[in-house]
Amino acid sequence: MNISFPNESAEYRTARNALLEQEIALRRQMEAVAAQRRALPAGGKVPEDYEFDGLGEDGKPTKIKLSALFRDGADSLVMYNYMFPRHQGDARAAAASGVISELPKAAQPCPSCTGLIDQLDAAAQHFEAGGGNFAVVAKAPLDQLLGVARDRGWRHVRLLSSAGCPNFRRDYHGEDEEGQQVPLILVFKRSRDGAIRFFWASELMFAPPDPGQDQRAAGTLEPFWNLFDLTPGGRPDFAEQLQYE
User: Fold this and answer.
1) To 5 degrees, how large is the angle CA 221–CA 34–CA 183?
2) 93: CB partners within 8 A, 6+ apart
3) Maximum CA pair distance of the chain?
4) CB–CB of 110/183 below 8 Å?
5) How many CB atoms lie within 10 A of CB 167?
6) Is the pTM of this model over 0.70?
7) Three-point CA angle 222, 228, 230, nearest 5°
8) Do 197 and 172 contact (CB within 8 A), yes or no?
9) What beta strand segments (E) does the chain contain?
10) φ, ψ of residue 35 in degrees (nearest 5)
């Protein structure tokens, strides 16, 4: 690499070149993992055509089946399970303004999930234009989901309520045995014959983390945290909030 930046030392360049080799290796490993994921055998066929509450094309509340989330020519569906309501052990502050503040703290959404959806809202339109389908699903009633969307300014994510669909939450581990919500990414695939099968989930959520880390189940999707990985201080001891001063 014949590159340098103003006033850098030879020591810096040597160390940076060594780091670059590791970054190249990481890039290759990430592609290898993605290729291995794409090569997974067919997953299990979904046991039922789950029905959610959402908005129809006319903007009015309606029932939407899982099969209807696949557009013509777009056979992959990514769903994010939004922790709404938040985990009962979440001690972070409640929202103090907006529609969301009208809910009791225990009924408000997870601040970290909300922060991730802030970021995914901008990405959703590009993902769908590229041939994917994306939706956010939560246990909270649809009107509460739409209220949060107005508070946050979300315009692109499709919001679904599974309040009336407990089988989906249980079958696909979006809810634990105590009824606590789990922030899980789920991917489904539609076959040529129209059958819908499970493809992949962010199972790092259930794997023990290394010391000093969380599970990072959605780690490659989070620009916020990945930006900190580029900084001298790394990831701060910080937790997202619903609102900031």
Assistant:
1) 35
2) 241, 242, 243
3) 64
4) yes
5) 12
6) yes
7) 110
8) no
9) 51-55, 61-65, 76-82, 133-138, 159-161, 185-190, 196-201
10) -65, -40
- With tokens 């909270």, the residue in question is 140
Structure tokens that stand for 125 in this block: 């339109």
Per-residue pLDDT of the chain (245 residues; tens, 9 = 90+): 689 999 999 999 999 999 999 999 999 999 999 999 999 999 999 999 999 999 999 999 999 999 999 999 999 999 999 999 999 999 999 999 999 999 999 999 999 999 999 999 999 999 999 999 999 999 999 999 999 999 999 999 999 999 999 999 999 999 999 999 999 999 999 999 999 999 999 999 999 989 888 888 887 788 989 999 999 999 899 999 999 98
**Is residue 137 within 8 Å of 131, Cβ to Cβ?**
no
